[in-house]
Amino acid sequence: MKVAIIGGGFAGLGATYELVRSGHTVTIYEKAPQLGGLAVGTTISGEPIESFYHHLFPTYLDLFDVLNELGAADSVHFRKAKVATVSGGVTYPFTGALDLLRFTPLTFWERIRAGVIIFYLQHKKKWKDFENKTAAEWLRKYFGKHTYETLWHPLLVSKFGDQYEEVSMVWFWSRVYERPTKFGYFVDGCQGFTDRLVEHLKDLGTQILTKTEVQKIQRLDSGKMRIESSRGTHVYDAVIIAAPPAAFCSIAKDIADQGIIEQAKTLRYIGNVCMIISFREKLSSYYWTNINDDNPFVVIVEQTNLVPDDTYHGQHPVYLSRYVDIHDQLYTLPDEELYALFMKHLKTLYPQVSDDLVTEYRVFRAPFTQQVVPASYESIRPKYSVGESLWWVSMSHTYPWDRGINHSFRAGKELVNEMLAKKEPAILEGHKQDVVRDDTRIAAVLGMVAGTFGIVPVFYTGIALPIVASAMPLALAVISAVGMFCAQLVQGRFSFAPQLMRFLIVGGLSTMIELGILNVLFMTTGVTSGILFSLFKAATFCIAFSNSYFLNKLWTFEGGQQLISREITLFAVVNAVALVLNVGIASFIVNGIGPIGSINSALWANIGAAVAVIVVMLWNFLAYKFVVFRSTGV
Fold first, then answer.
1. Would you kindly state where each structural domain of the chain is located, as residue ranges?
2. Is 536 exposed, middle or buried (0-12, 13-18, 19+ CB in 10 A)?
3. Predicted pLDDT of residue 624
4. Which uninterrupted H or E stretch holds 138?
């Protein structure tokens, strides 16, 4: 089959790659001087660098497969790189969980809450649970208003402007789910990878026509497609348009199904202004800095905090970027005025910055860099097939994933597999099985947190030596992980085993949270019995059950995101009963029966609390499973 591909970005390259590997002949039409789309490059000090910042994730398996085929796997390096967030004029480290715990614009409990939810999103595989939710709505509800306004509202506005309220929660999920601990880069830049791939495709018979604009596509009576361009007229068996919606509509308006054209016109994109400023020295130790304050640029990317320091022979390129509507004044601002504006604000963040440190700057603009993905996008996601012998692929086809060169490349491959009626290897939500996070890792983390809280009652009651108490986090992490792994192994015989194990781990964490806080109250007040004990027990139960609710809903029973009124009412009733059972049983044991034998009052108070928790755990499991979180079709 002879196929024309209009557009030489990564989607077009992915389609070309898959076609030529299947024995078909391909011609690529690209109006730019070089292939690569938004991943095109330039040079600084003679060394390659992307015009728009790019980095690689460990999940970019399609590109890594190509590199292996080209014998160039060593052209990609990964390294840990520091991330920061500017909030209220202060730069805060924001690379991992410990940085979040030190993020003082949020209260301590807001940080804990945010950490739990981020952890959940990083391990949540069922993205369709978010399909009908907007990011703003979901984030406000689950992170809380203050955390949302501090962290997430600035991010959404910086990406989507006044359209931020429409953006799907799936978009936000994909950003968090894919967030790596290490960033990767091509040693010779994205352009080097593109050039290497293009040479390989040429060796396989692909014709590359750069600086060539397609003027017209016509469907012949024979069903073949005729393309008119500045290089002449040629006939093909099929045409693939690898371009944004606006370009697709312009090229295909006379031959694509009109319903598809009208739908494509509704797809909205945001443009980008990206400036590279080369400095004689580094600005900071951070690779990526998000700006959550009002600023003309919203991110600072310091390239030599990812690639080796000497890559650009003493120069340190820094990207300053802004997503903006192409009709906004900032998009069309002359380069020298944009430079003056960006430098003015950069100096407020880094007082050491001066014009004397700048060796050069360059400005790049692109009109279609970020799609505005609305809630329920799955129902309007465009099809690959848009007419007889006519196909379309773009950033609009990578859903649920956000923009990225691997996702575009893969979309091109998927189109060809659909065209040739080939099936892809089994992939879990777009990633191969060997990179999917599983319940065992969640169990280990929850076990470690439980062990940390458990140190307090063990230490206070003196039932174990301090060195034994200090080993609890690691011990419970291992026990929880092994238990979860074993439960998964026997799932075929006992289908309930993983869910029961998840519940036990969550219950263990809630128990340790409750006992940990309870023993802190014992230590600070000296009270281990009486009415105050009962009040302490009620208070710590309320703290612990909020943790239990969210983890049981989102992990144990996978109940989705919606807090429907029926569920809230049942939850309130079940936990009112649980509260009465918890406080009543513990108070009866501690105040009614009292310490037995030589057991001291502190240890007896913990025994009473633990017995009550065990009874309540059994009650909660049955009530949660068969009443509160039973399947509702939500």
1. 2-76+184-267+377-419, 83-177, 269-371, 438-628
2. buried
3. 67
4. helix 135-143
* Phi and psi, residue 171, nearest 5°: -60, -45
Cα–Cα–Cα angle for 502, 503, 506, nearest 5°? Answer: 85
What is the 3-class SS of 494-562, one letter each residue?
Answer: CCCHHHHHHHHHHHHHHHHHHHHHHHHHHHHHCCCCHHHHHHHHHHHHHHHHHHHHHHHHHHHCCCCCC
Identify the weakest region by mean pLDDT among 161-165, 197-201, 228-232, 502-506: 502-506
Beta-carbon contacts of residue 58 (< 8 Å; ≥ 6 apart):
78, 180, 182, 184, 435
The pLDDT of residue 135 is 97
Can you name the CATH fold of 83-177?
A: Guanine Nucleotide Dissociation Inhibitor; domain 1 (1.10.405)
Helix axes 530-551, 601-623, angle to 10 degrees: 40
Q: State the pLDDT confidence band at 579, using cuts at 50, 70 and 90.
A: confident
pLDDT tier for residue 538 given thresholds of 50, 70 and 90: confident
**Quick one: which H or E segment has residue 276?**
strand 269-279
Domain 2-76+184-267+377-419 matching CATH 3.90.1150.10: the answer reads no
The predicted-structure confidence for 397-455, as pLDDT tens digits, reads as follows 999 999 899 999 999 999 999 999 854 443 334 433 333 346 788 889 999 998 999 89
Output the six-digit token pair for 207: 């014709």
Angle at 237 between CA 232 and CA 242, to 5 degrees: 75
pLDDT band at 321 (very low <50, low <70, confident <90, very high): very high
Q: Which CATH superfamily is domain 269-371 in?
A: Protoporphyrinogen oxidase, mitochondrial; domain 2 (3.90.660.20)
Domains 83-177 and 269-371 are alike in CATH topology: no
